[in-house]
Structure formats: C-alpha cells, structure tokens
Design a protein that fits this description.
The chain is an all-alpha fold and 152 residues long. Helices cover 69% and strands 0% of the residues. It contains 6 helices and no strands.
Amino acid sequence: MRVASALKGLLKVREASAHCDIPCGIYDPVSAKIAAQTVQKMVLRIGALEPSDDASHANTLSRYVTVKEEHAELCKHELRVLWADYTWPGTDANEIAAKFNAALKLASQCKQTVSMDSAEALVAAVDDIASVFWATKGVEYSDPVAEVRYGT
C-alpha cells in the first residue's frame, strides 16, 4: 500500500470522482429534484422556527441550515454530472448550457440566503431541465409524486 501511495505521489496521479466515470448511461434528474426540494423544505422549516434563546433552538436552526447547504451543494453536483456526462441529443447546446447555468446559480443563491423564492425557483429550474432531459428520450416529463414527496 505504501508503494502505491508513493507511486501516486511521484507520478502526481489525482483521483477523480463522479456519478459514473464509465459512464454507466443511467441518468435521471430526480436526484437533483429531491435535493432541491430538500432545500425548499429547510427554508420552510427555518422560516417556521419560533425564535428562542435556548440551546435547542440554536441546535435546530444550525441543523436546518446545514441540511439546506448540503442539499444545495448536492443539487449542484447532480446537475453538473448530468450536464457534463449526458449527451443531450437533439438539443441546442447553448440553450442547455443556459438552463444549467441558471439552475447552478440558483443553487448557490439557496446556499447564500434563506429565500423561499430562490428555493422555489431552483425546484422549477430542475423541473425545466428534467423536461428537456426526458424529451430527449421521447418521454413527457411529470413528477406526480412531487407534492407527496415534499409533504407538509
């Protein structure tokens, strides 16, 4: 094991990670949608949290913020993989790039703020990307369980 580590260092080999560097060919925007909905839910919960000076309030708030941040980053990761690895047949590359750019910026806004408008826009942007993705496969996109998944 030490030889392998030394060889990696000597050759300056870097490890890469992605959804699937093979590529496996299995893509679905639903993972980005679930992450975006989680951001939206955390914004809702942060807004509904009753102000308090006790430690449990601070603990709950910090947990909600952490989950919001992690899922906004997860959404960005899932979108970047989908954008970079899927071939997007029959689509305009500039249009796709603009959609992904907008969605990635929205995910960043969601990390920076606690804004329901930004969170809802992120979910809508992911849905827009999903519509284009499924259209490349000849399928009309719908997410009939989105409201149930999101819950109350």
